[in-house]
Every structure is written in C-alpha cells, then in structure tokens.
Specification:
Alpha-Beta Plaits, 4-stranded antiparallel beta sheet, magnesium, globular, Trehalose 6-phosphate phosphatase, trehalose-phosphatase activity, alpha/beta, Rossmann fold, HAD_sf, HAD-like_sf, 274 residues
C-alpha cells in the first residue's frame, strides 16, 4: 500500500497507538472522546456498541477503568447505563471509586454568581448556561463570536470570589471549585486498587485534559489526544470514531479474539510533540 492510500485510510507514517494491555489502568474522557460533540450537551449520542465494549474492558482490566469528565457523574451514568463505572465528574470535584458512594467537593461561593451569569445568557440567545452539581458552565458553541465576551464576564464575576476559578474549554468557560483538575483525579485513582501499580493510559480531546496527560506522562504511561493540536499527550488519534475503534479492537484482543478484522482506521495514530 503506498503513502497516498495510507493517508486516505487514516494511517500515518508514525508509531501506532498500541492496544490496551492487561496491566493497563484506563482513563477516558467522555465528550469529544468516547462520544462525538453535539451542538448542546444533552444532544450527545452514544454509539450502541460502546457500552458493551466498556463493560468488557472493565472486566478484563479487573475494574481498572474510570471515566474522567467535566460532566457530573449522574449524567455519565445516564449516557452509559446500565454501567456504573468508577468516575471523576466535574473535572474531579466528584469522585466515585468501585463502590456506589460518591465524594464531592463543595463550592459555597457559587450560588451568588449564578444570577449574573444567567443575565448574560438572557441578553445573548446564542449562549447556554449549564448548571452542574458544584459548577456552572457557559457554552458558546452556537455563538463562537462571543468567546471574548464570555471569558470577560466570567473573569468579572470571579474577581472577588473565594475558592472558585474559571476553566476555559472547547466553546465553553466553566466556573468550578479551585485547585481541582483531571490530573489530580487520575493521581487519586492511581493511588488506590485496582489502579495502583498499573500503566496509566488517558484519552481526552480538550485543553482541560492536559493536566491528565501531564500526570500519565510523569507516571510513565500514555496520553492519547483525540484530535490534533499542541499537547502533552504522547500519541493522537484522528477523532472519537478512531478512539472507539481502538477500544473495540483492544476489547477483542483482551478476549483472545483476533483484532485484525476491525476497520483499518481503528489504529490510526500519530506521535505528537508537546
């Protein structure tokens, strides 16, 4: 197969992303990673085969699989039902390990800020305010020209706030408890069974995932960027579809079945630089 055909199929002349090994501790972002992005968060669709694949990976990895997302855990459970996987929600403000109990960091100064942000959204119909358990996000995906306005408004309401910080992401700015990030969440998981002692692999797409990439790199693991941009991740795949194909192939391999029958773009990956 020549270089042009390789490019058309999504292959790159770079080392490919290896399949998941039995000693992996697997961490996965949700939006833009497991699921394709949608104009509004509630419109996201989960590929039907994905839930079964995640269940198989969870079993083959002896429980060392966690979702690490900006969404609240209750929303992740709804999208991935009937699974209730270990999870870090709201960038780590919510944590659930193997049991049903969930730990949550408080955000006592958040409520007084909500009316100011709601007023901003009412003035600009292209904006959308999303309330979370201990955070609030303003999405501007339907009005990207308002990015500067949203960032300035969030900075203004946080000027005198204590214990809160702004977190920019893809077409969104979030107000959340200060001092938490996905890297700290992954670190917490890696310090407890069944994750401890395994090689961490974290897949994510957003700038909010960079703290996670930095942690897995420090621990000798693999950061997988879904998409293309400057990053701390060590490899990349072209998009959520390629990431899902990698998960499907890995699950088949861990089951002992041949993985080579999957679509060729499943292993499209390239080395990236930080």
């Amino acid at each position: 197969m020549d270089a042009r055909q390789n490019h058309m199929l999504g292959f790159y002349a770079m080392p490919q992303l290896p399949l998941i090994e039995p000693n992996t501790a697997l961490f996965l972002d949700f939006d833009g990673t497991l699921a394709d992005l949608a104009p509004r968060p509630e419109l996201v669709q989960v590929e039907p085969e994905l839930v079964g694949t995640l269940h198989r990976l969870y079993e083959r990895l002896e429980g060392a699989l966690a979702i690490v997302s900006g969404r609240p855990i209750i929303e992740l459970d709804d999208f991935l039902q009937p699974l209730r996987l270990p999870a870090a929600g709201v960038h780590g403000a919510e944590m659930r390990t193997g049991g049903a109990q969930m730990a949550m960091k408080s955000a006592p100064g958040l409520e007084p800020l909500i009316p100011h942000l709601e007023a901003l959204v009412r003035r600009h119909p292209g904006l959308r305010l999303e309330r979370k358990s201990v955070a609030v996000a303003i999405h501007y995906r339907e009005a990207p020209e308002l990015e500067g306005l949203v960032r300035a408004a969030v900075a203004d309401v946080l000027r005198h706030a204590v214990g809160l910080e702004g977190l920019p992401g893809k077409m969104v700015v979030e107000v959340k408890p200060a001092g938490i990030n996905k890297g700290d969440a992954i670190t917490a998981f890696m310090n407890m069974p069944p994750f401890a002692g395994r090689e961490p692999v974290f897949a994510g797409d957003d700038v909010t995932d960079e703290a996670g990439f930095a942690v897995v790199r420090k621990l000798g693991g693999i950061g997988v960027l879904v998409g293309q941009r400057d990053t701390m991740a060590s490899v990349s795949v072209t998009g959520p579809a390629a990431l899902r194909c990698w998960l499907h192939r890995s699950a088949r391999a861990l089951d002992g079945a041949p993985a080579g029958s999957e679509p060729p773009h499943a292993s499209s990956a390239s080395t990236t630089t930080s």
